[in-house]
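#structure-requests
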Amino acid sequence: MQSAMELEDFHQDNTKNFVLKSVLPASIGKEDVIIGIDEAGRGPVLGPMVYGACYVAKKSEGLLSSVKVADSKTLTEEQRNQCFANLHAGADNFGWMAQILSPAVISKCMLSRAKYNLNAISHDSAMFLIQSVLDLEIRVAGVYLDTVGDPSKYQAKLRDRFPHIPDIVVSKKADSLFPVVSAASIVAKVCRDKALREWKFREGEKFLADLNYGSGYPSDPETKRFLDQFRDHVFGYPQLIRFSWSTTETALEKAASVTWEEVVEVVNSSTPSIMNFFKREVSQGTSSVPHQHQFFTDRRLKAVAQF
């Protein structure tokens, strides 16, 4: 974890999630604290999703007006950056955290056999941030969040997870209703924009010539151009892209199709062996020699038992 909006460590391996956090505000002490939580980058087809949290002593909530916080979507990039600079400069009163959810992790979760959808990922990230603030031994009196899914169910889920927090409010448009959520939205948006702007491609230098991939939203013309221009015929896309998005699936229809070789069953049994998904038995006299598909050979995968 780092104390400023420095993402060098994240970019060393941007296939994993990463957490940033500020120093603990000196003014908080044993005061009752409120937390605001919001996200940035839920909808885009590329780049990370970032969950941000801002926390402040309940009695000092009014100080957020001096930072001129507002829903990040209503501010220009310059205004957001200035807002974040003000928050960071007010370290004696304001604390913040951000969890960067890597697009590779998002894709893996959503495409796994045990489905882990974006709502569940979002809920877990919010709960992670709440618990991270609690771990600082801060007395949390209230948490305010923008809704993900049904507000009442989400609120009940959080109250069940954190029964000792007196006030938990899940609301639509919380980022425009509660200043502490507005501050969190700025943390999340500034962090995502910076992560996207500084993205380090692990797939080679061909991407360095054109970093203009737009906002990442599927409707953005620059994003569409990037998806079309940088689609590899065999390997698809770099890990900046979220492979679990339908936009990506549609775009990959123009890439090479994959046809798995037909499995030939020669074992004299009415029940196919599971091992036939991994090898083909080639009869040679009275014995059989296993032949693995190149996919498994390349990854050094071997059959360890015969069922």
